[in-house]
Design goal:
Layout: H1 11-23, H2 58-69, E1 72-77, E2 80-85, H3 88-97, H4 109-114, H5 128-141, H6 144-149, H7 151-168, E3 176-177, H8 178-195, H9 209-221, H10 225-228, H11 235-238, H12 241-265, H13 277-286, H14 296-310, H15 312-327, H16 329-343, H17 351-355, H18 358-371, E4 375-379, E5 384-386, E6 389-391, E7 396-400, H19 401-404, H20 449-466, E8 467-470, E9 484-486, E10 490-492, E11 497-502
Parallel strand pairs: 2-7
Antiparallel strand pairs: 1-2, 3-11, 4-7, 5-6, 8-11, 9-10
Helix pairs in contact: 7-8, 7-20, 8-14, 8-15, 9-12, 12-14, 15-18, 15-20, 16-18
Keywords: Heme, Iron, Metal-binding, Monooxygenase, Oxidoreductase
InterPro entries: Cyt_P450, Cyt_P450_CS, Cyt_P450_E_grp-I, Cyt_P450_sf
Protein name: Cytochrome P450
């Protein structure tokens, strides 16, 4: 999932001071105005623009601004203008009616460092390379058939997660922190599917792949001067951002280079339906079947994309879903009853079981509605008109899915966790419902949606089947903190701790 935002909490003391020093002489001469055929722009400060209005949660700050300035507004982050879309109807114009002309994407400061000298899938513009790389992902790496071939990995890794939780139950009623377990699960599933091996650190961070991916995600959400104040980009050297980006990029490329070399020197003898991504790509390259000769750097960049888009997002979604269920015990019981009635006396949950769990599907959809990655970036090829307003070529566009998922005219009681709303709603993860876009829409939608949902649903079904879940002693459901923090995706601010109670056999 291409989520393009950063942690705004650090800008206030540093950037506000810069703005005041640079603009005291002209501050009171500014007047709010609407340019001809341009969206409304919130009142802004010189130099920093509207950055001070984002608060520490940019998706919420943009939502509140849109309530006053409309579902299409023009904001300035530093000197860089962004058109912000906060309604499903306008999002449909962007991702359906004018999808091709909005299918570009700009490179961020972090992406330039992480993908030095190569194009990748997430941040590359709409080019011949990008179209062929996306075709490779959709048709070969993340097709429905391929995801089914990875299901044994999901089953094996979830089985290890269950064993870990059972072992923790020996302490007799102790709460466990689920976020770290979910991240380790997601890291290992993606690592095995992509590279054919586990993440040795389980996502906990000891300098190996899981920690490097964590560092890369932190870079992608870090505030940089060069992003919003190009004339001050040299300050990113002083803050250490550029140094950290270069070191992380080099370490990732060395790791991935070694893995590709190992695959070429010692090709694994595996079933045709159990190949990892490296095997698939290298075989396509060798047989000239991809339609494009990827460079070694291209291959490493595509592999890195899989980790950036497929680990933190899935782990966060599982944690949020379990938090919502703990917050709403009646819903927890309903979905648990469904899972247990479908599985019955069998001792292993299968994909066939999952396909029959309609209410579980609704629970996951509702969790993704409330806690989906929230800012989706696009860039225009040509001058366009959206909602009656002109948007020039090469404009940056942000689609605030957090706001779209809370439109009161579309969603009944939009702030509440109500899975049953999806029982009679034909929303899927393919972006056909332009009011429900947790994985984006159109050409830039996430090709790994099916893989992510398969992993999330299978893990949750097993947790609900094998364990009852309780809040730590003395805590009531209404006391569970559901505040969030900004990272590459929406995270719980406080880690979720629940007490697992093994199901009576």
């Amino acid at each position: 999932m291409a989520i393009l935002f950063y942690d705004a909490s650090i800008i206030s003391p540093m950037i506000l001071a810069l703005s005041l020093l640079a603009s005291l002489g002209c501050l009171f001469g500014l007047a709010r105005r609407r340019q001809h055929c341009r969206p409304l722009t919130p009142w802004r400060l010189p130099v920093i623009g509207n950055l001070h209005q984002l608060t520490s949660l940019p998706h919420r700050g943009l939502y509140y601004l849109s309530q006053k300035y409309g579902p299409l507004m023009l904001v300035y982050f530093g000197s860089t203008p962004y058109f912000v879309i906060s309604s499903g109807d306008l999002a449909r114009e962007v991702t359906k009616t004018h999808d091709y002309n909005f299918s570009n994407r700009w490179k961020t400061s972090a992406s330039r460092l992480l993908f030095t000298g190569s194009d990748d899938l997430i941040f590359s513009p709409n080019s011949h390379f990008w179209r062929q790389a996306r075709k490779l992902c959709v048709n070969e790496l993340l097709s429905t058939k391929r995801v089914q071939s990875f299901y044994y990995i999901i089953e094996e890794e979830v089985a290890e997660l269950l064993a870990t939780i059972r072992f923790s139950c020996q302490d007799g009623g102790s709460a466990i922190e689920l976020g770290g377990l979910f991240l380790g699960l997601a890291n290992n599933i993606v690592c095995r599917a992509v590279l054919g091996q586990k993440c040795t650190d389980g996502g906990n961070g000891d300098g190996t792949l899981g920690e490097l991916v964590k560092q890369a995600n932190e870079l992608l959400t870090a505030f940089t001067f060069g992003e919003f104040f190009p004339f001050l980009s040299w300050l990113d050297n002083l803050t250490g951002f550029n140094k950290k980006g270069i070191q992380t990029s080099q370490a990732l490329h060395v790791f991935l280079e070694r893995v590709i070399d190992e695959h070429e020197i010692h090709p694994a003898a595996s079933h045709a339906d159990r190949k990892d991504f490296v095997q698939i790509i290298t075989e396509l390259q060798k047989n000239d079947m991809s339609g494009l000769q990827f460079t070694r750097d291209n291959i490493k960049a595509i592999l890195l994309d899989m980790f950036l888009a497929g680990t933190d997002t899935s782990a966060s979604s599982m944690e949020w879903t379990m938090a919502e269920l703990a917050k709403h015990p009646t819903i927890m019981k309903r979905v648990q009853d469904e899972v247990r009635s479908i599985v019955g006396e069998e001792h292993k949950i299968t994909e066939h079981h999952i396909n029959r769990m309609e209410y579980l599907h609704c629970v996951v959809k509702e969790s993704l509605r409330l806690h989906a990655p929230f800012i989706i970036g696009r860039q225009t090829f040509t001058d366009l008109t959206i909602g009656g307003f002109k948007i020039p070529a090469n404009s940056n566009v942000l689609i605030n899915s957090w706001a779209i998922h809370r439109e009161p005219l579309i969603w009944d009681r939009p702030l509440e966790f109500l899975p049953e709303r999806f029982l009679d709603r034909s929303s899927d993860y393919k972006g056909q419902d332009h009011y429900y876009i947790p994985f984006g829409q159109g050409r830039r939608s996430c090709p790994g949606a099916h893989f992510a949902v398969s992993e999330i649903e299978y893990a949750l079904a097993n947790l609900l089947f094998w364990f009852n879940w309780e809040l730590p002693e003395g805590m009531a459901a209404e006391e569970l903190d559901m505040s969030e923090t900004v990272a590459q995706v929406s995270h719980k601010k406080l880690p979720l701790r629940l007490v697992p109670v093994p199901k009576a056999v």
